[in-house]
Specification:
The structure is a homodimer of 226-residue chains.
Chain A lengths: L1 H6 L10 H14 L8 E2 L1 H8 L3 H14 L2 E4 L3 E4 L4 H20 L6 H19 L4 H17 L4 H20 L7 H16 L3 H25 L1
Antiparallel strand pairs in A: 1-3, 2-3
The structure holds a DNA duplex (30 and 30 nucleotides).
DNA sequence: AGAGTCTGGATTGTCAGACAATCTGACCAG
DNA sequence: CTGGTCAGATTGTCTGACAATCCAGACTCT
């Protein structure tokens, strides 16, 4: 039963709880750039706008806070998290720890998990070729990185990785589209997977470090420029 | 201001929000073994028992669920998480990834963070010598492990590590005291720190892997025996 | 006029009570 | 003994309310 719940979770969003729907709507608005960082999220306003009650909104907000997408100040409510350089650096640091663990687990990973990485890469590359939207490319890009962590086969590490890329997604949304050369990104990923498929785990690990470091710098630059 | 809030957070628990106090009380009851794994946590019962309202309890329960200490099944409420072998293995796996990252960061860590590890070790050893209670030893033991992750200087990695040991604490509480030889544990930790202080990072990393693997086996054994 | 103080409105934190939807378990019919 | 139905219990959500706190602007005093 539990694998069903997991597998169909995206399809069952229809009758997910109201709280989850509200949280999802808020996330979407944040990723879509409809609310700027630091914007206070007023409970009553959201409740009226979405046609739900205030307690429901409160629960959804608590969810966002626990995900790091928003911050709560006592008696002052919650507001959209504002990405700062320290946060970007820390997230990328964490990503290297987690994704690095995935890369190092390449040899012990099951064939399914390895082909999952390849599948995500292909999906991303195809999207790039087809000139998909910035938003979609971004999601696919991050999905690839999460699939690296999937090589460990650890649900907790994957959950942590997912939380990290979600935080990053917010930062990217705020920074108004770090539209770096998508082809370079795809090629870089391709190189990483090729190293893995050649069984050069150490090389892939080192490559990943450079890749993530580059990503951090790019975001930091965009952040400073905004 | 923010560093004050962080530094004094433990002292300010007195006038923390009601929700946090409820969540804390529930955690305490779980760690104290007052509720068994799988026990349903009824909202109304808790609300009456603690003299708070049901929405408040709901928020506290949501907090526990997001920490992995409890699970929520739709329309069936939340109940205390039941530790299973896969969970223990996964937590220990994650711990190795995070604490390993801490160990590998030894050379780049600030002197304060390194002495923090030493301080936690001394504290633990002293408590063992003084024959502290099982509960206290357990907390100090886990605090030492978290301080290893602190070597990375990454607040997110530390938060993840804290969440992991909290989950483990629950498992240990349920398993009715894995009262392994506390002296061996302390000695093992001492050996690890000595390796680090001799700058043998690789050796310490390998040692940590064995240490965590042993810990997992011990807990699994106790779990199976219960 | 400038600086400190006070008050009103807005917002959160928390509570009480209520209702429909769903689940559980027991009772009853075949 | 098996299967269906029903009552009780519990959750998910809503409405409405109130005290505590915070912010902004007016007000007073020098």
């Amino acid at each position: 039963m539990s694998e069903q719940a997991g597998r169909y979770s995206t399809l069952r969003l229809e009758h997910a709880s109201t709280v989850d729907r509200v949280a999802g709507e808020l996330r979407r608005a944040m990723f879509e750039g409809e609310v700027e960082s630091g914007t206070p999220l007023r409970e009553l306003a959201i409740a009226e706008q979405l046609g739900v009650s205030r307690p429901t909104v409160r629960e959804a907000l608590a969810q966002l806070v626990s995900e790091g997408l928003a911050t709560r100040e006592p008696n002052r409510g919650v507001s959209v998290a504002t990405p700062d350089p320290a946060m970007v650096r820390d997230v990328c640091r964490c990503r290297f720890v987690l994704e690095g663990a995935g890369v190092l687990a390449w040899r012990d990973a099951t064939p399914e998990r390895r082909s999952e990485v390849r599948a995500r890469l292909d999906e991303y590359v195809r999207a790039v070729d087809e000139g998909a939207s910035y938003r979609d490319l971004n999601d696919l890009h991050l999905a690839f990185h999460v699939s690296l962590v999937g090589l460990t086969g650890s649900p907790r590490l994957m959950a942590m990785a997912q939380a990290l890329v979600t935080e990053l997604k917010l930062a990217l949304a705020q920074v108004d589209r770090v539209r770096r050369n998508a082809h370079d990104q795809a090629r870089s990923h391709e190189a990483l997977v090729l190293l893995l498929e050649k069984d050069d785990v150490a090389g892939a690990h080192a490559f990943l470090e450079g890749h993530l470091s580059d990503a951090a710098e790019a975001i930091l630059g965009a952040l400073g420029a905004s």
